[in-house]
Amino acid sequence: MDRRDLLKMIAASTGAAFVGSNAMAWGLKVPATDPSKVGLSKDDISLMSEVAETIMPRTDTPGAKDAQCAQMMAVLVADCYTPVQQQAFKDGLRKLNLASDERFDTPFLVLSNAQRFELLTELDAEARKYNAERNLWGAVNQRPNSRDADDTDPLPHYFTMFKQLTLFTFFTSEVGATKVLRYVGIPGKFDGDLPYEKGDRAWAT
User: Could you tell me the keywords of this UniProt record (predicted)?
Assistant: First the structure.
């Protein structure tokens, strides 16, 4: 799967342009930053891991933990997000726990799997509404729908940032590409009429 196509798919599924898309789409070669240097602690990464696993759980195929999504998410936040975006992401982790406390009177990490799914489903609906209003604001003010254009524009909902990074890191991981998508290390000739059966997995290459 072409990385730009993946970014477009994720943007469509989350209702917001991909945060940090310029750096990720063009594959900029930047040194991996220690996530702790931008304020992401081990506890933050543990929380990100559980959020990602709730979004992409292990079923008959691997989940986010199998792909070590949280660790890669932390690197992308450190390397591809602007300082404003980094702060919004970190604030989002705090807001997530506040939402968990308000909804279930307990932190997210203590919730059952069913409670985690219920909470994130509610946040996803909240995020879609928020992003739709944000996109309308951008259209009225004739601002580009890109988070790399201007840090003064409203950012997507914090849950959207979590979901985008989860999907991106999962489907670009070795686990996601080979165990969930279909992958051929050395593709053969181009076939414009490849047979397709309903339910066939998408191609990673």
Answer: Oxidoreductase, Signal
d(CA 51, CA 55): 6
Prediction pTM value:
0.77
Structure-derived torsion over alpha carbons of residues 42, 77, 154, 17, reported in degrees to the nearest 10: -130
Q: Please count the residues of the chain.
A: 205
Residue 48 pLDDT > 70: yes
Count of the separate structural domains present in the chain: 1
Can you give the residue range of the structural domain that contains 133?
3-180
- Check: CB of residue 67 under 8 Å from CB of residue 175: yes
Pure H helices in 15-151: 21-25, 42-55, 69-80, 83-104, 113-140
Does residue 198 form part of some domain? no
The CA-atom distances, in angstroms, between 192 and each of 70, 189, 195, 196, 198 are: 36, 10, 9, 11, 17
Is the pLDDT at 16 greater than 60, yes or no? yes
Distance CA 96, CA 106 (A): 11
Please state at what angle helix 69-80 crosses helix 42-55, rounded to 10 degrees. 120
Is 197 part of any domain? no
Give domain status of residue 16, yes or no. yes
CA 7/CA 74 separation, integer angstroms: 18
